[in-house]
Automatic annotation (TrEMBL):
The keyword Transcription applies. InterPro entries: Carb_Metab_HTH_regulators, DeoR-like_C, DeoR_HTH, NagB/RpiA_transferase-like, Tscrpt_reg_HTH_DeoR_CS, WH-like_DNA-bd_sf, WH_DNA-bd_sf. Residues 3-58 form the HTH deoR-type domain. Gene3D superfamilies: 3.40.50.1360, Winged helix-like DNA-binding domain superfamily/Winged helix DNA-binding domain (1.10.10.10). It comes from the Bacteria. PROSITE patterns: HTH_DEOR_1 (PS00894), HTH_DEOR_2 (PS51000). Keywords: DNA-binding, Transcription, Transcription regulation. GO terms for molecular function: DNA binding; DNA-binding transcription factor activity. It comes from Vagococcus carniphilus. This is HTH deoR-type domain-containing protein.
Amino acid sequence: MNQQERLIEILKLLETEPFLKQETLANHFDISKDTARRDILKLVEQDLVERVNGGIQLPIIKQQIENYKNRVVTKSAEKKAIAELARPFILEKQTIWLDVSTTVETISAKPFSSHPLIVTNSIDNAVSFSKNGNDIYLLGGYFQAKSHLLKGPMVIKELMNFNFDIAFIGASGISDDGIFFDELDDISLHQQLREQAKQVVLLIDSSKLNRTTAFKINFDSIDTLITNEPLPENLKQVIQEQPINLIHP
């Protein structure tokens, strides 16, 4: 096996092994430690791996992107079901907010005939919806690699310039105590969306029902809840007490 073949094989190994030592490579390919070291240097020079603690791993940004892609694939049937229930809300030439959410992104699977103006802070939403020929405003801020989003005070400031007909949002969880998010910045963003949107629609799959985190907004922040299966009784009772339109298959 020549060096090029070994380099390809090393990258394949790193798809399943998060970390490989120089000694591990030498034993795996039955080569000297010096040869293994030269292979590592070649991969590092090409920015294909990072050196850490006497070994190598895939670059952190690549791992984060792969993790995000895996989230898109996971529970894809449930997300598609939710997206199909959400699409009828989109009417001719509306201005629409799309949250950073793999479920929200699934709405882009089919082209729109209604020609909406789309606003988002999600790189993935912008790419997905642009393939259908939609006009898109991508709000500025600093880039958070793990979620492919732009965030910070600039996003909130720019958000205030829009009058949304509808805002499709995601969340990290929902319980009978409220709607939950992973980061404090998410709270100010969604509070501002409530001010800017005529209608706020929460899209959330069943894996997030009765899940809580550290940061919460109240139920009056949404008008409609769409999920892929009936709610648990505790959550169903609370939602029915609110002026919230509940939709599921």
